[in-house]
TrEMBL record:
It comes from Streptomyces prunicolor. The chain crosses the membrane at residues 20-44, 90-113, 133-156, 177-196, 208-226, 255-281, 301-321, 333-353, 365-386. This is NADH-quinone oxidoreductase subunit H. InterPro entries: NADH_UbQ_OxRdtase_su1/FPO, NADH_UbQ_OxRdtase_su1_CS. The keyword Transmembrane applies. Residues 411-425 have a biased composition (Pro residues).
Amino acid sequence: MSPYPYLAAEDLSMFGRDPWWLVVVKAVFCFAFLMITVLFSIVWERKVVAWMQLRIGPNRHGPWGMLQSLADGVKLMLKEDLIVKRADKLIYILAPIVAAIPAFMAIAVIPFGPADNEVSIFGHRTTMQLTDLPIAMLYILAVASVGIYGIVLAGWSSGSTYPLLGGLRSCAQMISYEIAMGAAFASVFLYSGSMSTSTIVEQQHDRWYIILLPVSFIIYVITMVGETNRAPFDMPESEGDLVGGFNTEYSSIKFALFMLAEYVNMVTVSAVSTTLFLGGWRAPWPISSFWEGANHGWWPMLWFVIKVQLLLFFFIWLRGTLPRVRYDQLMKLGWKVLIPVSVVWLMLVATVRTLKNENYDFADIALYIGGGVLVLLLLSFIADMFREKAKDDAQLAEEPAGFDAMAGGFPVPPLPGQELPPVPRRPSRRERELIVSGGSDTGSDGSLDGKEASDG
């Protein structure tokens, strides 16, 4: 008997038995799936953002503008390829390749269907997954971490200030958000008892982990936006202060590779989130309850693609809704909120798993209560932030700050909420004559009354 009864039984014997040509076919399918999804996502993003902003969006290339992303790719390939003089040429050329290749590698261990449901491809029975590993999730973390080197090297090798700042921002952002992401993964590992992607999906046959581990799902959704450098966390390519960020000095196909890596990473993190928290290839509850064949044959791939597209829509929705945050706010969220919450949640999940292994029946109840408490704490923290901001704004409105029109060396008009200091009153001509002659003021000090008395 295993000394760790909570570990899931991993049966990976169905992998590694395909002939070499079938492995190539499945690898080409994974590559094509990513490329087609990226082409669709670019058009979809432009259409959805245009709809949110009451615009038309792409409508020239292809029916309803559906070939716009393909036209953009052809345009980028035909543009002039420039290399700046101060760039380190070798690293400058390798950087977009280093950023793009790891983005495609994570899809190799993502299951598109159940491991025990083999489909027929050219007469051969095979699983709907390229391969699987006992440490598949660690493999995904590793290749995701390698991709950041492409951005850092691009910023350094360009020989320019703005790309260097963008590369450094991306490196700091990755470090702060991958810690919380790893803790969210660890919660799934503890509850599923495995790091194999196919086993994690199999363990969600009863309930999806978005229900059992809601805090882990929220943390991972926030960190995956930060990992992909997407709005509102797109500080490495912030146009407002960095022109274009790490890819400022890139053009033509090299720039296209960076954009491709960004969108492929969006698809990858969406697929990982689907696998870990949304039941993977499993059909949603209303369908799976009355249709027994929903999770057999080629149908699981449909449910998987729908879930990935919903998460991609979430990326687009964020970009069209939220403004870009400041860099200090980005770092504060990563280090002061996400990491402490993820660590506390991980300790709670480990405690509940230990109690469940000791045959306590209230494990799920404790998990739900703990999740609710942490969600309330997180909401209270956000509410406190807004309350403090409103209080500071009210104080500023009540006590307008002093304004010096000549502080910058030249006169400027006051901004809303600022007031010019009172201008001293210029003395009248009568007052100036009295001051010059040394006489006293009239009327106010009774001097006229004194003169009249002396005359009398």
